[in-house]
Recover the amino acids of this structure.
């Protein structure tokens, strides 16, 4: 098993090693993680763009929102007939929603292995030692103390650097931002 792990690590080093070498601070490669977050966001956004029918997804969500609004209004009025009619219609809407949820899993199937491999490489490379110092406001807005507490529960109480975050939280912050920018650039009508 260690042989396969070494082969995968070497292959990924040949791909991502040059990116890491270009980082101005290879010992603390925050820019490399930003670039990897961009690559992963681009892969997942493009997969979502071409594997999920965005128009149908938006229509389905609009139908469900309208249905919920009608059901709430009927319940407020106490209109038993309308509630019964809407509940009969609900089964059909749930079937449509299940089909759309299945469609939304298509990109995950395509992107899961590459993302897993990238995470594996980041954990094995110099990136696992990354500490990014956040401005005080960003530190509190991203709820970093909460993440530190959760990490302490799982990994023991390690002393953390004040206002510092590790590679995983930095990656998540970068990916969130990059995904939003790419979704807007590629013409998605909604955020997530």
């Amino acid at each position: 098993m260690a042989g396969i792990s070494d082969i995968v690590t070497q292959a990924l080093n040949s791909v991502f090693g040059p990116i890491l070498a270009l980082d101005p601070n290879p010992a603390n490669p925050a820019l490399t993680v930003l670039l990897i977050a961009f690559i992963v966001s681009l892969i997942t956004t493009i997969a979502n763009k071409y594997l999920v029918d965005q128009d149908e997804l938006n229509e389905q969500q609009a139908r469900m929102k309208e249905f919920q609004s009608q059901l709430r209004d009927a319940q407020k009025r106490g209109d038993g007939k309308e509630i019964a009619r809407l509940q009969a219609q609900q089964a059909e809407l749930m079937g449509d929603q299940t089909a759309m949820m299945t469609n939304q899993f298509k990109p995950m199937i395509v992107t899961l292995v590459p993302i897993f491999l990238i995470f594996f490489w980041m954990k094995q490379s110099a990136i696992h030692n990354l500490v990014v110092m956040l401005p005080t406001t960003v530190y509190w807005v991203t709820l970093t103390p909460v993440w530190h507490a959760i990490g302490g529960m799982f990994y023991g109480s390690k002393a953390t650097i004040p206002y510092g975050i590790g590679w995983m939280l930095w990656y998540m912050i970068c990916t969130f931002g990059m995904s939003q920018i790419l979704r807007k650039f590629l013409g998605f009508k909604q955020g997530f």
Q: What stands out?
A: The chain has a mean pLDDT of 82. Residues 43 and 69 are 36 Å apart (CA to CA). Residues 80-124 form the longest helix (45 residues).
